[in-house]
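Support case: S-adenosylmethionine complex. Customer-provided input:
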Amino acid sequence: MIASEKEIKAQEKEYYQSLDEFVQLCNEMIDKGLAYWVVVLSHELYRFLYPVEPYANITLAEPVKFVAEHIKKINASAKNVLETIYPYSFDLNQFADIRKESDVLGQSTSDLYADMWRNFDSMTLVEESLQLVKRRLPDDLIEKDILGKDVLDMGCGSGRYSIALAKVGAKSVSGVDWQKRAFEAARLWCEKNNQPVNFREGDVLNLPFENESFDFVFSNGVIHHTHSIQKGLQEIWRVLRSGKRSFLYIYAANGVFWKTRNVLREVFKRIPLSYTQNVLDVIGMPSNRFIFCDTWYVPVETHTTKQELHSMLDEIGFKYEKVFGKNEFDLDGALEKNISGAEIMWGDGEHRYILEKA
Ligand SMILES: C[S@@+](CC[C@H](N)C(=O)[O-])C[C@H]1O[C@@H](n2cnc3c(N)ncnc32)[C@H](O)[C@@H]1O
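Agent response - structure generated as follows:
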């Protein structure tokens, strides 16, 4: 909806109020020897004042509204800079503290993801995940293992894949995650669109289902965030019907990629998530940008080698087959192409497997 002239005037007024505040904050930063930040933030403010910013993929459909909001983000960042000069006026180690308390780990993992997903629009939630499911799963699997079958989405998060699994033809989909806050939007969408998805709160290490309840278990990026990958795999085995299959995605280990990730996770223990989100906002990135916030802030993230994974699967009794990610950014594609130094770069790549309860 196009804003009225009155609304645009109000946005303009808001912008100038924020601009006054920005000037004050800049002076304060310069007084404290933080002129570097004044340059960065002024640049980020100014570049979005042009009708087109060639270095950022942003369409200024409502330019005044955009700049009025953008300058507020810049001011929030400037305040963060000023608050975090030594001695700190707030506890920069708050995330490190959360990570130490094991009983709240699961809860804070869900909090992190629930907050990130709040900003999903239904296009992302529904269409993108449908395309992803189609690309991720081998072609014959949807027909053989999902069509007309009872499916579990183990650690469903926002519920984006639960919806996609229903859309490709599952008879029923059960989506389980720690907190209903994560999948509330998807639950309402399913109700409105008559999709056979039943979301429920629960622990994936102690699934609220009888043995042998499902024909297919889908678990994408979940059990490496729990305190036991082995228990997660045992739960998949327990709830699968005999002879049925599962899609598993978990993080691998080794190589520059996974090791750098661990190092950066340590660095970012000292910077609050809200601070990083403000910086991302300022540079035109979505503040829920998974590749940054997920990686740096999730409380538990375990990296598993190929050997470790295979030995756990062997012990439980699964038959298994690796599937290769087909997206440009998936690590396996690069490994498959035998690029020189690929293993040094990406280690064991990523673990995407089809498991079978033999
Ligand atoms: C990276 S997200 C993946 C979500 C979803 N599978 C997807 O691909 O969009 C990880 C999810 O695992 C959930 N999770 C982690 N540990 C859990 C546990 N023990 N029980 C239930 N959910 C858990 C988190 O709440 C979070 O929603």
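Residues 106, 109-110, 113, 155-158, 160-161, 177-178, 182, 203-205, 220-222, 225-226 surround S-adenosylmethionine (CB under 6 Å).

Case will auto-close in a few days if no follow-up is received.
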